[in-house]
Design a protein that fits this description.
- The chain has 298 residues and is of the alpha/beta class.
- The chain folds into three domains: 83 residues, Winged helix-like DNA-binding domain superfamily/Winged helix DNA-binding domain (Arc Repressor Mutant, subunit A); 105 residues, Periplasmic binding protein-like II (D-Maltodextrin-Binding Protein, domain 2, 3-Layer(aba) Sandwich), CATH 3.40.190.10; 99 residues, 3-Layer(aba) Sandwich (D-Maltodextrin-Binding Protein, domain 2).
- Helices cover 41% and strands 22% of the residues.
- The strands form two sheets. Strands 3, 4, 5, 6, 7, 8, 9, 10 and 11 form a nine-stranded mixed sheet that branches. Strands 1-2 form a two-stranded antiparallel ribbon.
- A hairpin with a 2-residue loop joins strand 1 and strand 2.
- The longest helix has 24 residues.
- It is elongated, with a radius of gyration of 23 Å.
- The termini are far apart.
- Pfam families: HTH_1, LysR_substrate.
- Keywords: DNA-binding, Transcription, Transcription regulation.
- This is LysR family transcriptional regulator.
- Belongs to the LysR transcriptional regulatory family.
């Protein structure tokens, strides 16, 4: 049994990383050794699990079928371990969340801090990256997104709506007239995303306003906010960020009000994992409450 699970664990790593070198780093195994183990598993099963090429290891149909079964076994193993270690009442172990950096910087510290205080044996890892996470490769146990994916074997539920407005530093506005229309924005420096690095159409706020040029840009919400705080221009800001940016105030609120949503995204097989499900419920509730609290102060 132990050998069978170990073989599945190695198979899962190669399937998710699509290479021996990537899987070897995760498992701390030499790629050559890992390659021999994969070959041994294929021989034992009498079927090819991967198509090998210079580009990496791609799953065959048989490999894709085994991946589904192996992930189910992985979830069953995690659930059994949780029960045997007494995790049924209190969360413990490690849970990794992928999130866009606005959520990761301005919401998750409070929400995850509260969950950690309730569960002292729980380790929460927040990976803040402005991109979409690959849950099939187990880059994270769950992810927060700004749109609901439609492809893949995923569980997706809406957490909450949130709002954004144009904003600028008070000292920036003291030096020039505040814009009184969208057309007047052309007379101001604008702060926003790097156009070709916007990873989700929902983040292309300025294009919706007919604005093509962004003189000061970053792929990070935090960098954009700091640019605005320094008096460098006007940009779209999450209402829940304003509490952390004293001196920044909203402008043109009557003309520009943007609504978006956060979604919790999980691998489909995780719905049978009570530990991750309880954490997901607590995380979603915490985010809803924190967005409401901070937006009320905006």
């Amino acid at each position: 049994m132990d050998d069978n699970w170990d073989d599945l664990r190695l198979f899962l790593a190669v399937a998710r990383e699509q290479s021996l070198s990537g899987a070897g780093k995760l498992l701390r195994l030499d790629p050559a050794t890992l390659g021999r183990r994969v070959a041994r598993l294929e021989k034992a099963l009498q079927v090819a699990l991967f198509v090998k090429s210079p580009q990496g290891y791609a799953l065959t149909d048989a490999g894709a079928d085994l991946l589904v079964r192996a992930e189910r076994a992985e979830q069953a193993m995690r659930a059994a371990t949780a029960v045997l270690s007494g995790q049924s009442d209190r969360l413990s172990g490690q849970i990794r969340i992928g999130a866009p950096d606005g959520c990761a910087n301005f919401l998750l510290p409070q929400v995850c801090g509260a969950i950690a205080a309730e569960n002292p044996e729980l380790d929460i890892q927040v990976v803040a990256l402005p991109r979409v996470f690959n849950l099939s490769r187990r880059e994270a146990d769950m992810a927060i997104g700004v749109s609901a994916p439609t492809a893949g074997r995923l569980l997706v539920h809406k957490i909450t709506d949130y709002h954004l407005h144009l904003a600028a530093a008070a000292h920036y506005l003291a030096e020039r007239p505040a814009p009184d229309s969208i057309a007047a924005l052309r007379d101001h420096r604008l702060v926003g995303y790097i156009p070709d690095m916007i990873f989700d159409r929902e983040l292309d706020y300025l294009a919706d306003l007919g604005i093509a040029r962004v003189p000061l840009a970053s792929n990070s919400v935090s960098v954009q906010l700091h640019m605005i705080r320094q008096g460098n221009g006007i940009g779209v800001v999450h209402d829940f960020c304003l509490d952390a940016a004293p001196g920044v105030r909203r402008v043109l609120t009557g003309a520009v009000s943007i609504k978006r949503a956060f979604y919790l995204i999980r691998h489909a097989d995780d719905q049978r994992n009570p530990r991750l499900s309880r954490f997901a419920e607590r995380l979603s509730a915490g985010l809803r409450a924190e967005v409401a609290r901070l937006e009320a102060k905006a």
